[in-house]
Structures are given as structure tokens and as C-alpha cells.
Amino acid sequence: MGIAGFARWLLLPAGALALSLGAASTQAQTDGVSQETRQLCAPDALRLCKDFVPDVPKITACMTAKKMQVSPACRAAMDRETRDRAARARLQTTGSVRN
Which of 26, 8, 24 lies closest to 45, judged by CA? Predict the structure, then answer.
């Protein structure tokens, strides 16, 4: 495979992931993954979970299952997402108890 063929092979999955992540960015509130986390974790998602592109929930599950294999930046972003989600859940629970 020549350089052009390799570049095309590399760019097609990257493009598919970018499209799926970009289209899914409007779902960020639904699936709970921020745009920052998507950007930091996209290389890891391509490396570890490319079989699930463009299914964002499956990519998310795959990344969670392979969390110890992701880059430190991605892992930190995933940890922030988890903390933020827990904090939002606590606020919703606290808010509903007070009302």
C-alpha cells in the first residue's frame, strides 16, 4: 500500500469518527460526554474502539471498559465527566428533596 493508500485508510476511520463525534456533539447532554472529552479521547477511541464507530454509546462503553489503556489526558477527561455527572445527580436529588 502506497502512502496515498495508507493516508486514505487512516483518514477514512478518522473522518468517520470525527463525523460521528461531531454529529453526536448535539447529543452531548443526552449521552453525557462533553466536546472536550470527545476531542481528548478521539485518538484513543480510534485506536481502541474503531469497530464501534459511529455508534457513540458503544464507543463510550468500549472506552469505559478500556479505561486503563487510554491516554492520561483522556483518562483525566473521563474522570472529570464521571465527577461532573455524579455532582449533577446529587444536585438533582437534593433539589427534588427540597421541593
Answer: 24
